[in-house]
Specification:
With about 550 residues, the chain is α+β, with helices and mostly antiparallel strands. The chain has 17 helices and 21 strands. Helix 7 (about 125-150) runs antiparallel to helix 8 (about 160-175). It starts with 12 loop residues before the first helix and ends with a strand.
Length: about 550
């Protein structure tokens, strides 16, 4: 028969009405009183617990050592849990575990009042508190990952983003050091790609060991993250047999590590290892956040890498639309600059070219295609290559500026589709070098007129004409102009004159004239001065810059 509680007759009504469970035990660790709240918390009827050991409320794994510890407390009055609130797991009558906040106090009542009662324990349901703490921790980790992602967005390319990844992760998630591994396409293993340590600290033994290791799938901490495609935590690296760099971790004083894969779809981009010098728990919430971060960062880095590849492709395409170098012409200096626009389009529509004709003369060509992007690039390529074909030695007749421009116009009309109209403005020169200077034949099709820079002033050359690719009836007016020694002829696209500052004011023909008036001469000096002045105009501007091409033909004095 269960012993009768000696507290029950004297227990105040407040104790019975408390929402927290109250358990009283004697010196033998047997329950002598329990209030009704125990049924709501742990599913037990109070009468069923009377006289039973406190271990009935403990999970099996926590019962070991309880008897010895309780006996010591009964004898000495000293115990680790007394006087403090501790969060631990209690056993429900149905067999599952319930997190509780446990507060233990020693009963001070005289024996005549309390009999053998020794301790009173108050148990409060901690599941809500734990849930809130976990939600807060998840929110903190997610906010940290968002800050990491924000830091990566400032990287110009994927390689720079990878370099910024480790310090951002360690700083935001409070880890001491980190290592990055990336797949080696030749060996099929993970190779060391970077190490980060706190400022002022030198990379240690783990960094040196990383250079000696190549991890296969499932091998070591990074290989396990690769194989499982989820974060893998090792809370004690010194005793975990899966961690193959134990000596290095001991040497660096590193105790806990976690690795997570950076994934883009099914492709592994990298594995990040984070290390702590303190042995610390790696909660499931952090594992979930790192798994999410690995996918999020992977998508971002994958996009950066793809954009980098597109930019490289676009750069290659852009270079194909421009001459790799300008030829050397006796008695003439040539210089050119090209700068793509500042918009989303990766390929511009400006081009220029200089090529020899069959009779010893030279063709100089500059053009500006309406629009940017892939379609404009195709039109630009068609324009440049048609101009070269019309002026090549293989042509049936020696072409002049009007012939070249009409050939380009016909090609553009043949290539015209149902899409938007892609007209082209162009200027074509034919240079005839002589002993006293150069004679230039100039044809213009809707393009800004070339500017002749003479020692005594500036002047435009040519007749504006109509753009190419609009009408088959193209009339090109051709003019001849002498370029004596000490003069420079400047060809440019409207990216120069239409460049706008933050107030919306254009650089304009007046700006170009001011720059040329301040340059002593020489092809290189002229193009440098023009491009520098345009950059100054655009600096800090909210307006998108257009493509810019400048080509100068100078006849030295």
């Amino acid at each position: 028969m269960a012993p009768e509680s000696r507290l029950a007759p004297a227990a105040p009504a407040l104790l019975e009405a408390l929402p927290d469970a109250v358990v009283v035990a004697d010196r033998e660790g047997r329950i002598t009183y329990v209030n009704p709240a125990i049924r709501q918390l742990l599913g037990h009827r109070p009468d069923d617990l009377m006289g039973r050991s406190l271990t009935v409320l403990m999970p099996e794994r926590l019962r070991r050592g309880h008897g010895t510890g309780f006996a010591r407390y009964a004898a000495t009055g000293e115990g680790k849990l007394v006087g403090a609130t501790t969060q631990l797991l209690a056993l429900h009558a149905a067999g599952h575990e319930v997190p509780v906040d446990l507060t233990i106090s020693r009963l001070q009542q005289p024996a005549t009042e309390a009999g053998d009662a020794l301790v009173v324990a108050v148990l409060r349901d901690a599941s809500t508190t734990i849930l809130l703490e976990r939600q807060f921790e998840v929110s903190r980790h997610l906010a940290a990952i968002q800050r990491v992602a924000a830091a990566l967005t400032e990287a110009p390319d994927a390689d720079a983003a990878f370099r910024q990844l480790l310090p951002a992760l360690c700083t935001e998630l409070d880890w001491d050091t980190a290592t990055l591994w990336q797949p080696d396409g030749h060996t099929g293993r993970l190779a060391h790609a970077g190490t980060w340590t706190a400022p002022g600290e030198e990379p240690g033994a783990l960094h040196a060991a990383a250079h000696r290791h190549r991890f296969a799938r499932g091998e070591g901490l990074p290989g396990l993250a690769w194989a499982h495609r989820r974060p893998v935590a090792m809370e004690d690296l010194w005793s975990d047999p899966r961690f193959v760099r134990t000596d290095a971790a001991r040497c660096d004083g590193v105790r806990t590590g976690v690795a997570f894969p950076v994934l883009r779809g099914d492709d592994l981009l990298a594995v990040c290892e984070l290390f702590s010098r303190e042995e610390r728990p790696v909660p499931a919430e952090l594992v979930d956040v790192l798994a999410h971060a690995g996918r999020q960062i992977g998508q971002f880095l994958g996009r950066l890498r793809a954009e980098s590849e597109v930019r490289q492709l676009a750069d290659t395409l852009q270079r194909s639309l421009l001459p790799s170098h300008l030829p050397a012409i006796r008695g003439v200096e040539l210089a050119a600059r090209y700068r793509p626009g500042g918009g989303a389009a990766l390929v511009g529509g400006d081009t220029y070219d200089v090529m020899p004709l069959s009779d010893g003369r030279w063709m100089v060509f500059i053009a500006d295609v309406c629009g940017t992007g892939a379609e404009a690039a195709a039109v630009t390529a068609l324009t440049r290559h048609t101009a070269r074909a019309a002026a090549s030695p293989a042509a049936e007749t020696t072409a002049g500026p009007a012939d070249v421009l009409r050939a380009v116009n016909a090609a553009l009309l043949r290539a015209q589709t149902d899409g938007p109209l892609r007209f082209v403005t162009a200027c074509c020169l034919v240079l005839s070098p002589g002993p006293d200077g150069v004679c230039a034949t100039v044809g213009v099709a809707g393009h800004p007129l070339p500017v002749l820079h003479r020692p005594d002033g500036l002047g435009e050359v040519g007749v504006p004409g109509h753009p190419l690719g609009i009408t088959p009836d193209l009339d090109v007016a051709v003019v001849e102009v002498d370029l004596p020694r000490g003069t420079t002829l400047v060809l440019y696209t409207d990216g120069v004159t239409e460049a706008r500052d933050d107030a919306g004011e254009q650089f304009g023909e007046d700006g170009l004239a001011r720059v040329l008036a301040g340059v002593a001469g020489g092809a290189e000096a002229v193009v440098d001065a023009i491009t520098a002045a345009v950059e100054d105009q655009l600096r800090g501007s909210r307006y998108e810059a257009d493509d810019l091409a400048v080509l100068a033909v100078a006849v030295p004095a």
